[in-house]
Amino acid sequence: MTVTVTTADKTGARKRIDALDDRIIGLIQERMAVSAVIQEARITSGGRRVNLSREMEVLGRYSDALGKPGTALAMTLLELCRGRI
Question: pTM of the predicted model, to two decimals?
Answer without folding.
Answer: 0.80
